[in-house]
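pls read this stuff:
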Amino acid sequence: MATQNDLFKKVISHAKEYGFVFPSSEIYDGLSAVYDYGQNGAALKNNIKNYWWRAMVQLHDNIVGIDAAIFMHPTTWKASGHVDAFNDPLIDNKDSKKRYRADVLVEDYCGKLEVKIEKEVTKAARRFGEAFDKEQFLATNPRVVGYQEKIDGILKRLGQSLEKEDLADVKNLIEELEIACPESGSRNWTDVKQFNLMFGTKLGASADSAMDLYLRPETAQGIFVNFLNVQKTGRMKVPFGIAQIGKAFRNEIVARQFIFRMREFEQMEMQFFIPPGTQKEWYEKWKDTRLNWHKSLGLGEENYRFHDHEKLAHYADAASDIEFKFPFGFKELEGIHSRTDFDLGSHEEFSGKKLQYFDPERNENYVPYVVETSIGLDRMFLAVFSKSLQEETLEDGSSRTVLKLPAVLAPTQVAILPLVKKDGLPDLARKIQNDLKWNYAVNYDEKDAVGRRYRRQDALGTPYCITVDHQSLEDQTVTLRDRDSMQQERIAVDQLDRFLDEKLNPKYWLQKI
């Protein structure tokens, strides 16, 4: 049976081989934790953005979108707390000279305990068959309960130590758990230190007068500083939201796991402005709404779970992550945070400008509270890609590699294949391509035998193949092949658009929310 590590290696190699993700500047040996999206990766990424934007902006009449600059006035980051508090706890192994995030070492230790729980569940499920009650087993099996209590205790202590900035206790915890360096196997650790993650740069031509700037470490502050601009020009009434998709930059010391943790990445964020005192209900509402958006893609409900934060950021009164089951275990995919009035209040204080809203229903001015939904676009890409990549053994004993992407997100939605390159088949195939390309991402493929072309389109994630054969010239029907079931059916050329619309139009996917 393939290990998680083997599966992840397959994901990385498939992403490169089929034009999804390349190491950045690879001809110069690349740049650590920086990646380029290839032709298919860029298309998949854009489709994810579009699916999010439609759900968040187009379908809500009280949410609008902006695109703020990457460079911001440096005081922005003082006000937001990033200059003083945007740190990771780092620890070095004295033997391997490798540097690690102390909290990640502890979380990975807990991840191994979770794997043990899963193994116990799998064994029990095999033993009891259909009579197996997973919930009851998790709650009553002494070994599983022991593992879970250990995980909860460790994470609670870690959260409390980080909140109090008791870095000595974080080191104590690593030593008590006997966590070894993954590289050297040694437990010879330095003290834990804080490290600021922002990239610094300069603005101005002369070294003397240049202003110190930062590349933004998150996109949210561009929304907060534009709160009044958007509210007034859009005549927005609280509650309302501002959404944004954009690049952010973090000097991750322990960037790893392919595109899961990068130094240059993209975020899809929405800040929802609400009256003080209503944050609890809006926080719960957005948790449900966002989970339903993820579920609408059909990647399996069992692959999602909420993880409520033990350690809250300095600005939050509630925070939860939607975690996804990546090839390396459950990890954060999206964060939902109740940020109170910290952001607008802090910018009001540092800028000296009023960032308040006059609420006609309450007949009062106030600084709105904020509920944030923030998803890493690259992580979303990895979640979709890794869960879709499958090896299947077919009835004849052969195998195929298939990328079962949600059809609404696929880079190529329809491939047009003339059976042979003669007898007028390419002419009809090109005509069908030209008709369909207005509404769908269409690819024309005439190289190799049709069976090999099917396999190639399977590996690219193309949901539908249309084969034009000699019968097509006689009766204007084609063979439509479904990627997932591999079923084929004859369909009239003039019915193709209606059939594909029902399968590929985002409208029918988003209605599931």
